[in-house]
């Protein structure tokens, strides 16, 4: 009887907590980005997608008002900073000559506005005649330059095209075109799982259908040493960085043809942060200087663009934190029929060893398996037999 009473109390507590959760939270749509989510009825909260500070009023999500004024969104902070930078006269400097074009460029500057989701964004635009550039590469009207064709740069390009931007968007990257590059890159072909915020971002970009078709669906994690499963019921996928980039780029090219231009095998360095001037260098030694209405740095943690802007623009700061991680990647080339590619497998706890699949040459139905073995510090093997001995001793399930 006593145990039965405890059982009833536990059931009551569960239903009580469920009632409290439903009574104190509301599901709604963020007015900033349109993403559906759940937020508190009693206190302000931030949108998990765009960071907009929200509160619930009359069952709807609205911008949080503090002392009758809404806090600035990240977009508004960037707008105000850009406006301030545009009004600041940069120190005079000599413009570098282009080694391959053979012409100088004369330019002046004017402040222009672009309408955004939170109002107009002011910045400095360079006007004048570009250095010798072919008709094919010249973009008329306002033009946005994106530095880096990784997931961030491609996602931004796709988002701009999807918004119906009437100007041009050019994406530069020093690497090879994702479509022609080898599918397997030993330095970057590790398994990435896309869930949570990543899945919501892809939903916002309208590419869920393409990821369903072109990547491996993610169902959860199997922890073999503990005999446990952690299933994932929401949308999710696994793939390599290349798989992700190919899917995003194909969406741009096929759904919005002509809206985004991709230029690979080209390095792009910010020459002047005030005028949006970028120096472009191709793989055969050609150099070209171009000015854009907006330059966005999507060139990774070691961004040279952000470093240049921090050096030239007073008040611009960028912070980063480095979490050192050492690992060895092992390619599984046998007995993989025992593994389900829609699951990640924890094969060992210490050292941690996690196996997952990416697309093979035949796509999601032809998975290629890898296992990442982590280390606390840098670890080097003398040769392959030395690595095999270590793995057999510390993580035998891997082999």
Fill in the keyword field for this structure.
8 helices; disordered N terminus; FAD/NAD-bd_sf; 3 domains; FAD/NAD(P)-binding domain; alpha+beta; globular; single chain; four-stranded parallel beta sheet; 399 residues; six-stranded mixed beta sheet; oxidoreductase; D-Amino Acid Oxidase, Chain A, domain 2; monooxygenase
The percent of residues in helical segments reads 25-40%
The CATH homologous superfamily of the largest domain is called FAD/NAD(P)-binding domain
- Rounded mean pLDDT is 76
Number of helices: 8
- Strand order, biggest sheet? 13-12-21-22-23-20
Report the radius of gyration as a whole number of Å.
26 Å
Shape designation: globular
The CATH topology name of the largest domain reads FAD/NAD(P)-binding domain
The CATH class of the largest domain turns out to be Alpha Beta
CATH architecture of the largest domain: 3-Layer(bba) Sandwich
What is the total domain count?
A: 3
Straight-line N-to-C gap: 53 Å
| Major beta sheet summary | 6 strands, mixed
Q: What structural class is derived from the secondary structure elements?
A: alpha+beta
- Give unreliable regions as ranges: 1-21, 91-140
The percentage of residues in β strands lies in 25-35%
Instruction: Tell me how many strands there are.
Output: 23
């Amino acid at each position: 009887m006593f145990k039965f009473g405890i059982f009833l109390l536990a059931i009551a507590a569960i239903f009580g907590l469920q009632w409290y959760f439903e009574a104190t939270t509301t599901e709604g749509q963020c007015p900033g980005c349109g993403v559906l989510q759940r937020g508190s009825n009693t206190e302000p909260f931030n949108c998990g997608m765009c960071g907009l500070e929200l509160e619930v009023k009359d069952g709807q999500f609205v911008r949080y008002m503090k002392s009758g004024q809404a806090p600035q969104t990240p977009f508004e902070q960037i707008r105000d900073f850009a406006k301030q930078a545009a009004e600041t006269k940069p120190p005079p400097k000599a413009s570098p000559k282009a080694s391959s074009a053979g012409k100088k460029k004369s330019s002046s500057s004017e402040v222009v506005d672009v309408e955004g989701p939170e109002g107009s964004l002011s910045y400095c635009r360079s006007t004048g005649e570009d250095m010798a550039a072919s008709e094919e590469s010249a973009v008329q009207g306002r033009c946005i330059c994106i530095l880096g064709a990784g997931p961030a740069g491609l996602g931004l390009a796709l988002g701009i095209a999807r918004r119906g931007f009437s100007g041009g968007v050019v994406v530069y990257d020093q690497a090879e075109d994702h479509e022609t590059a080898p599918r397997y890159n030993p330095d970057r072909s590790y398994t990435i799982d896309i869930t949570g915020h990543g899945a919501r971002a892809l939903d916002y970009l309208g590419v869920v259908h393409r990821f369903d078709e072109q990547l491996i669906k993610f169902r959860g994690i199997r922890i073999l040493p503990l005999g446990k499963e952690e299933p994932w019921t929401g949308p999710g996928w696994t793939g390599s960085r290349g798989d992700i980039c190919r899917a995003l780029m194909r969406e741009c090219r096929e759904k919005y043809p002509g809206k985004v231009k991709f230029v690979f095998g080209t390095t792009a360095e910010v020459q002047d942060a005030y005028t949006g001037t970028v120096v472009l260098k191709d793989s055969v030694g050609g150099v070209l200087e171009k000015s854009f209405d907006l330059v966005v740095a999507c060139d990774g943690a070691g961004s040279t663009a952000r470093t240049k802007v921090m050096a030239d623009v007073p008040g611009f700061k960028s912070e980063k934190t480095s979490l050192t991680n050492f690992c060895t990647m092992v390619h599984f080339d046998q007995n993989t029929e025992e593994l389900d590619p829609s699951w990640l497998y924890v094969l060992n706890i210490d050292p941690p060893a996690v196996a997952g699949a990416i697309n093979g040459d035949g796509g999601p139905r032809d998975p290629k398996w890898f296992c990442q073995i982590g280390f606390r510090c840098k670890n080097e093997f003398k040769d392959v037999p030395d690595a095999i001995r270590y793995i057999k001793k510390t993580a035998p399930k891997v082999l």
